[in-house]
Amino acid sequence: MAIPEVGSKAPSFKGVNQNGTEISLASYAGKKLVLYFYPKDDTPGCTAEACDLRDNYKRFQSQGYEILGVSPDTEAKHVKFIAKYELPFDLLADTDKETCEAYGVWVEKNMYGRKYMGVKRTTFIINEDGVIEEVISKVKTKEHSAQILD
To answer: What Rg do the C-alpha atoms of the chain give, in angstroms?
Structure first.
């Protein structure tokens, strides 16, 4: 799947968060959503990104945003990641990669000549009507909040 374009309806998704609670795009109806996709819990870049969003969480809330992180990690890994870094937002356990594929971020990657499938770090800003307002594909992990809010 290709990455959905700005102005298009956000692809619907359904999955479970770190607590095993089912959440979907409809769970955020009427709210602005920062939907961010990242490769793996507790790795340097993903930790920097999550902590930057955590440190600016009150700013996001004051501007009416909810935040949802998505990775292929399990609920159990998400629980540990959230506890370790005191993350105040939900993480979706996309173990079957359906949500990643729907948003076009499950892609072939290349590291040191080895090809493999993985998550392309990408953030979608979705408005209250479920329309994509912005796609950030060049994420600066330590300054991601500024990329979204400033």
So the answer is: 14
Residues 6+ apart with CB under 8 A from 22: 14, 15, 16
* Confidence label for 1 from pLDDT (cuts 50, 70 and 90): confident
Q: Which amino acid is at 43?
A: T
Alpha helices in the chain (DSSP H): 44-55, 57-62, 75-85, 98-102, 144-149
On average, the pLDDT of the chain sits at 96
Domain residue ranges in the chain: 14-144
pTM tops 0.85, yes or no: yes
- Choosing from 46, 67, 87, 91, which is the catalytic residue? 46
Active site residue 51: no
Annotation: CATH topology of 14-144? Glutaredoxin (3.40.30)
Q: Which residue has the tokens 């173990």?
A: 95
